[in-house]
Design a protein that fits this description.
This protein is an alpha/beta fold. It is about 35% helix and about 20% strand.
């Protein structure tokens, strides 16, 4: 893997023009950067790198900062001033979006910083050894995990604490290993966490999910001796009665096209592991219905299950990556219209917002007023799951807190009580 220093010393750096290289040096003081040689050699078209979707996926570019940020950055006259400016810009980029810190449980008198328990059935665990990635995505909503901010970082090395928490919470059926990328861990470290699941007291934990971008960025992790041993472990968990799901992050069809990724997918499937695919919709990478349709078709052809089209979270270079919700819905609907029923397992566009996963389900017009039709797929308040509610149509809105929720009876004589409850509990700030 190449970090900033090793990339600048490598021949790869000569592929960038002078201005892009100078911008890269400044941008990587703010955003995390790491890239695998697999991505550099197999996925990027260097002959037209500036417009290449995979280049935009992993290399920060000038447009990711606003001009006011560049002015701040260029105004620093000393290393000390520059450090303060970098810190100020990072905080300005909303490093902890969507109330993630609200999800940290307090248990037995302490805060469990390596867990999130937002939904009743699902616990997210952040193994400390997996709080990095083979390659960083430029739009990553957990980018603050990888930079030196004086903020909480989600991570834990305590397998015993995870075991005890799960044993005490028998309502939990799903455990999601996340990060960073848990597949960056060695087998030795990962097995310390997986082995606790064989405890008879954790029989209620039936679904084990692994959130990873490794299939796209470093598919060799599932091949060779170490890969075979890892998949054998997953197979043994599968044979114990657990469902194992690899939540694979694919952002573009090109990530599916190499021989290595195809071999890795086949090896995972042979181990009895289900692969579900997900990705956010991001402007310079995949904001095109044909790209999504092609990607989903190829995933189904490779025996993977399309799962989510996410809305890019309001963090980092959100202004550069975000797509308005109305446009996202149009892209999703157009892609859905061109694929078979086998692909219609994918849900979207979905916002993983503070109160829950909000599906942008459609548009309606009532009394001459256009409205977004919204629905919670998951919610902190379980009573709201799968309830329909509404927001005023705004062609510029890109995130939950830019929407104005309404009572349906404000535009029709019909009384719609769920919408009233939503307005009370979840009306966004303005």
């Amino acid at each position: 893997m190449l970090n900033v220093k090793s990339f600048l010393r490598s021949p790869y750096s000569t592929r960038l023009n002078h201005q892009d290289l100078e911008d890269f040096k400044k941008l990587t003081k703010i955003f995390p950067f790491k890239v695998s040689k697999y991505v550099l050699d197999e996925l990027i078209d260097w002959s037209a790198y500036r417009d290449d979707p995979i280049f935009r996926l992993v290399f920060p570019v000038r447009e990711m900062l606003e001009e006011r940020h560049w002015e701040l950055l260029n105004s620093a006259n000393s290393p000390e001033e520059e450090r303060e400016v970098i810190k100020r810009i990072r905080y300005d980029l909303n490093p902890h979006p969507s109330g993630q810190q609200k999800n940290i449980p307090r248990w037995r008198g302490r805060e469990l910083g390596g867990l999130q328990h937002k939904y009743r059935e699902t616990v997210l665990f952040f193994p400390a050894q997996g709080q990095t990635c083979h390659t960083y995505c430029t739009y990553c909503f957990r980018w603050a995990q990888f930079v030196n901010l004086d903020e909480h970082k989600f991570r834990s090395k305590d397998a015993a604490l995870l075991r005890d928490y799960l044993a005490a919470h028998t309502e939990v059926s799903d455990l999601l290993f996340t990060g960073g990328d848990p597949m960056h861990m060695s087998n030795k470290h990962f097995f310390e966490y997986l082995d606790i699941l064989m405890d008879p007291e954790l029989e209620h934990v039936q679904n084990i999910r692994i959130g990873t971008k490794a299939l796209a960025y470093y598919p060799m992790r599932f091949l060779g001796a170490e890969g075979e041993i890892f998949l054998q472990k997953l197979k043994s968990l599968r044979e114990s009665g657990r469902h194992i799901a690899l939540m694979a992050h694919f952002s573009h069809p090109r990530e599916l096209q190499t021989a290595t990724v195809r071999q890795a997918v086949e090896a995972i499937r042979q181990a009895g592991v289900t692969i579900r695919t997900q990705s956010p919709l991001v402007r310079p990478v995949n904001a095109n219905a044909d790209v999504w349709a092609d990607m989903w078709r190829e995933q189904v052809k490779m025996d993977m299950i399309p799962y989510y089209m996410f809305v890019e979270r309001d963090t980092g270079a959100h202004g550069y990556f975000s797509v308005p919700l109305a446009e996202a819905l149009e892209i999703y609907n157009k892609a859905m219209a061109s694929v078979s029923g086998l692909i219609k397992t994918v849900r979207g566009p979905s916002m993983s917002a503070d109160p829950g996963k909000v599906l942008v389900d459609g548009l309606i017009e009532v009394g001459g007023k256009k409205l977004f039709v919204l629905k919670f797929i998951q919610a902190r308040n379980r009573d709201e799951i799968n309830k329909i509610f509404f927001a005023e149509y705004d062609p510029r809105a890109t995130w939950w807190d830019e929407l104005k929720l309404i009572d349906f009876d404000a535009v029709t004589e019909r009384t719609f009580q769920p919408a009233k409850r939503m307005r009370r509990h979840f009306l966004p700030r303005h």
